[in-house]
Amino acid sequence: MEQQALPVYILSGFLGSGKTTLLQRLLDHWKSQNLRPAVIMNELGEVNLDGLLVEQEVPMAEMLGGCICCTSRGDLSTELTTLVKKEKPDVVVIEATGAANPLEIVDAVTETSLYQQVELKGLITVVDAAHLLELYRSQQGATYRLMQEQIRCASVLILNKTDRITAEEAEEISAILRKWNAYAEILPAVRCALEPEELLGGLGGVHLDGDSADGGTSERDEEYSGQSAGQQGKAHHTHDHVMAYTHYFKNAVDSEAFEQFVKELPRDVYRAKGIVTFSDTASRFLFQYAYREADFMKITPQGEVPDVAVFIGEHFSAGELRTRLLQLEKRYFGRPAAVKRGL
Ligand SMILES: Nc1nc2c(ncn2[C@@H]2O[C@H](COP(=O)(O)OP(=O)(O)OP(=O)(O)O)[C@@H](O)[C@H]2O)c(=O)[nH]1
């Protein structure tokens, strides 16, 4: 009955780090499973060279002439919506140019979840091992900071081009990555030759996948065990640094209780937005939450729009949010309005 949310992956990484190489592998993998992938790609130049390299029959939306994060968020959101409606893919990858700040893309994808059943599954950052080391040693400029940001936001880090560094350098780089991102799994690779199952398996995780949220929260506080990536149970690598939890409501909620819930959101949730139906008002509401300020606006959505809320933040407990929201839904659902207890 319920429609399955469409998985979306963001692929980030510096220019030339190996994103297209990885994308090609992922596309082959999905196709071998008879799935229909689609790609949103953008390039800084006018011609999408990467697009030419990727097989033609994959539906592709291109955003040329600027990087995704510099075009407005709405554009990417619209692009994604159009692609989903037109192509009906089973999975979508957004390849960000080397210059894009992935947080903006996370925001655009979650924006789309308000109107479409899409779900951000993870953010994969490909790191060019040799280039990172060079930048780290010189520690300068905007490039360095952007690379840091891309690493910080990742749910999984691919340390690519390890054929171009020594074993000692690989260790040095892993330590740098760990320092910047204590949560993401680090997968060393040459030409991004990783098992897609292994790579994606660790991502379908607790935080980014609303419906599998329960059961995973206890892992949240576990310390990273420090093993080199890839060998040990992927089930334990569900920590994601920047994460989004998407909640589809099945019932209306009480407006005051919901406002209270938003007020009490954990500090690690820095952004939330959604559409809700209140049990005690006639209309539906769009709510926005940023930097501890909440805003509710009456709306009359055109067409079919689900009641949904997305929460973005850093390693918060998606399971806890989910439990609280389900409680809110139940509270109204399980209590007939007419029944008011007397004394
Ligand atoms: N030596 C070496 N070269 C690699 C590796 N992975 C990719 N390359 C090469 O690096 C170049 C860039 O790879 P791409 O996959 O196009 O990188 P990209 O991140 O998509 O690049 P942009 O589109 O510029 O952002 C290509 O020539 C690849 O063949 C690797 O592990 N080792």
Automatic annotation (TrEMBL):
Catalytic reaction annotation: GTP + H2O = GDP + phosphate + H(+)
Top-level taxon of origin: Bacteria
MF (Gene Ontology): hydrolase activity; nucleotide binding
Cited CDD domains: CobW-like
Domain CobW C-terminal positions: 247-327
Cellular component GO terms, alphabetical: cytoplasm
Database matches in InterPro entries: CobW-likC_sf (IPR036627), CobW-like_C (IPR011629), CobW/HypB/UreG_nucleotide-bd (IPR003495), P-loop_NTPase (IPR027417), Zinc-reg_GTPase_activator (IPR051316)
Keywords linked to the UniProt accession: Chaperone, Hydrolase, Nucleotide-binding
Region feature Disordered, mapped onto this chain: 210-236
Pfam families found in the cross-reference section: cobW, CobW_C
Family designation: Belongs to the SIMIBI class G3E GTPase family. ZNG1 subfamily.
Name of the protein this chain belongs to: GTPase, G3E family
Organism of provenance: Paenibacillus typhae
